[in-house]
Amino acid sequence: MNADGSGLTNLTPSPVCCSGQPSFTPDGRRIVFERFDPDTFDDAIWSMKIDGSDQQRVVDPWPNGAGFATDPNVSPDGKTLSFVGFDGSLIGPPPNFEPAQGLFTAGLDGSNLNQLLPFSSDLAIKQDWAPDGGHLLIGVNANFFHQGDSANIATIRPDGTDFQYLTQYQGGDVNAFAGSYSPDGQWIVFRLEDHGSYALYKMRTDGSNLHAILGFSSFRPRNIDWGPRPQNDLGGGDE
Predict the structure, then answer these.
(1) What are the angstrom distances between the C-alpha of 185 and each of 76, 111, 188?
(2) CA–CA dist 169, 57 (Å, integer)
(3) Rounded average pLDDT over 58-65
(4) How confident is residue 91, by pLDDT bands cut at 50, 70 and 90?
(5) Domain boundaries, the chain
(6) Residues whose CB is less than 8 angstroms from the CB of residue 186 and which lie 6 or more positions away in sequence, other chains included
(7) Helix, strand, coil shares of the chain as percentages rounded to 5?
(8) Are the beta carbons of 83 and 125 closer than 8 angstroms?
(9) Domain 18-217 has CATH 3.10.20.310
(10) What's the rounded Cα separation, in Å, for the pair 158 and 117?
(11) Hey, how many other C-beta atoms are within 10 angstroms of the C-beta on 46?
C-alpha cells in the first residue's frame, strides 16, 4: 500500500498458504518473504516483484523439507540473502521443547547456501544487516535451550567470522532480544526483559552506552525496526 494507507493490495492471495516476514530488496524492486502451506507443512522463502508478479521459490526448508526457513533479509548491496533456518529437530529444555534455529546466507536466487551459526545457537527469529553490510545483528539462546543462561544479542560477519556478544546477561531472568541498527549504523535498538517486565533500549554497536527509550512495563516490543530519519529533520538525534 501507499505510505498514506491508500492502494491496499493483497500480493499473495491464496486460500491455503500463509505469507509473512516480508523484506524489500535495497533497490525496492522485489520483496523476499516466507511462505507456509499448513496442508503440507512446506515452509520456504520466496521472492517476487513489488506488484506480486514473478513469484519464485528461493530457499527450500532445511534439510530436505524437514524444517523451515524464515525471516529473510537482503544485504545493503543487494547481493546476499540472510535467513533463519530450522532443521526439524526439537531440543530442550523439557517439557516445552522448541525448534533448533541457525543462521544462513545465500545468493538472492538461493545459490551458495552457507550456514553461519549452528542450530544449537538457538537463533531468535529477528536479525538485521548493519547499514554498511559488514555485520549481522542476531539474538542467541532465544528459547533458553541452555538452562540457566539468558538470551543475548551478538553480531557476526556475513562470512561467519568475528562472532561477538554485545550483551552478556546470565541466569535467565534478564534477557536481551535483537531489534535493528539505526540508519547511520551507530546504534542498536532492542528489547530488554527483566523478571517479566519489558523495555525498549538502545546501545552503541559495541554494546556500550546502554540506556532506555521506553522504560519497563507490561508492553512487549517485538520485531523492532528503526525507521529512517525524516528528510526535513536536519538536526537532533536518531531516536
Answers:
(1) 12, 28, 8
(2) 39
(3) 75
(4) low
(5) 18-217
(6) 204, 205, 238
(7) 0, 45, 55
(8) no
(9) no
(10) 11
(11) 20
120: left (phi over 0), alpha (psi -120 to 50) or beta: alpha
d(CA 48, CA 179): 25
Taking the chain, what is the end-to-end CA distance rounded to the nearest angstrom?
26
The set of cell numbers assigned to 47 is 521472492
Q: Tell me whether the omega of the peptide bond preceding residue 38 falls within 30 degrees of 0, making it cis.
A: no
Name the β-bridge partners of 34: 20, 45
pLDDT value at position 220?
86
Cis bond upstream, residue 63 (ω within 30): yes
Q: Which amino acid is at 123?
A: L
C-alpha cell at 108: 538472492
What's the mean pLDDT in 35-56?
A: 90
d(CA 174, CA 81): 31
At residue 236 the predicted structure's pLDDT band, cuts being 50, 70 and 90, is very low
Cα dist from 42 to 55, 67, 72, whole Å:
16, 8, 16
Rounded Cα gap, residues 50 and 22, in angstroms:
11
Closest alpha carbon to 199 in 208, 207, 190: 190
- How many angstroms separate the Cα of 45 from the Cα of each of 70, 96, 114, 237? 7, 27, 15, 36
Cell numbers standing for residue 145:
535451550
DSSP 121: G
Q: 130 and 181 in contact (C-beta within 8 Å)?
A: yes
